[in-house]
Design brief:
- With 277 residues, this protein is α+β, with helices and mostly antiparallel strands.
Length: 277
């Protein structure tokens, strides 16, 4: 585990290679802000008031006799003073040092003895409105390439039965680059105005679409082409469209189909990413 982390854990995705790490999370606690504060001399703590008002708490206060430390320890004073100055800001550390003073009459700092002549710690009860905290940091590190690969692999499948050679990319409609295909039943000039009308309505609502009007391919083959690239919905314009202004709306994974009005096409595609037909 990294020296700066209090804890580390991974998020994994199962794929054909087994379980692979896609996110590494490090609980850095307050390592970053404590070190920034120590080096810069800036107070980076946040004061949080107690929700139910001030409380009486045990408070420890340290008094450092720098002159005495310098006279007794001389050159070794620089090994003790930084530690004591840091301890002044940490009540938990002051508590343990206080208990050590109480039991032994002195404390050990870097194998040097600090007596009550050099430093004293007092214990008292005070009314405290809140506490100063240093925020912790959680650091996630994402492997975007692995995530995209697993997303594509999980979405890939082949239809069973007579359609077992037909590939399907079941990309969620929310993330599919192309939301729907526009498919005239065949090459017929009468279908062209409807293709343009539907395409314009979808573009107006920022819904991406793909027109497949290449002649020579059956509607089934063109459905298969859009399934190959993960298009979740298909709009088919046929001769019934000329009569009642409706189209067939097909859902990719189930291949279910319904008839809807052309006027409802764009709104329907706005709501379908979170619903099914």
């Amino acid at each position: 585990m990294a020296h700066y982390a209090k804890d580390c854990w991974d998020a994994e995705i199962e794929c054909s290679y087994g379980w692979v790490e896609c996110v590494g999370n490090a609980d850095r606690a307050c390592f970053d802000l404590e070190n920034h504060s120590e080096k810069s001399g800036e107070n980076l703590s946040a004061f949080v008031n107690y929700a139910d008002g001030p409380k009486m708490e045990t408070v420890y206060e340290l008094k450092i006799n720098r002159k005495e430390i310098g006279q007794i320890l001389r050159g070794d004073a620089k090994r003790v003073l930084p530690y004591l100055e840091k301890a002044e800001k940490k009540q938990s550390l002051l508590k343990s040092l206080y208990e050590e003073f109480e039991s032994k009459g002195s404390i050990k700092v870097d194998n040097l003895t600090v007596t009550t002549q050099m430093a004293t710690i007092t214990k008292s009860q005070k009314s405290v409105a809140g506490q100063a905290i240093i925020p912790s940091v959680i650091e996630p590190s994402f492997g975007i390439g692995r995530i995209i690969y697993c997303l594509l692999e999980h979405a890939f499948w082949c239809r069973s039965g007579s359609d077992e050679q037909r590939i399907v990319f079941s990309l969620s409609p929310i993330i599919a680059p192309v939301k729907c295909s526009i498919l005239p039943l065949m090459a017929n000039e009468k279908f062209v105005p409807y293709v343009q009308k539907i395409s314009k309505a979808l573009n107006a609502r920022n819904i991406s679409s793909k027109i497949d009007d290449r002649g020579g391919a059956s509607i089934g083959r063109r459905y298969a082409r859009t399934d190959d690239i993960g298009v979740p919905f298909g709009i088919t314009i046929d001769f019934e469209t000329l009569e009642n202004n409706t189209v067939t709306l097909r859902e990719r994974d189930s291949t279910d189909q319904v008839r809807i009005s052309i006027d409802a096409v764009s709104y329907t595609h706005l709501t379908l990413p979170t619903k099914r037909i």
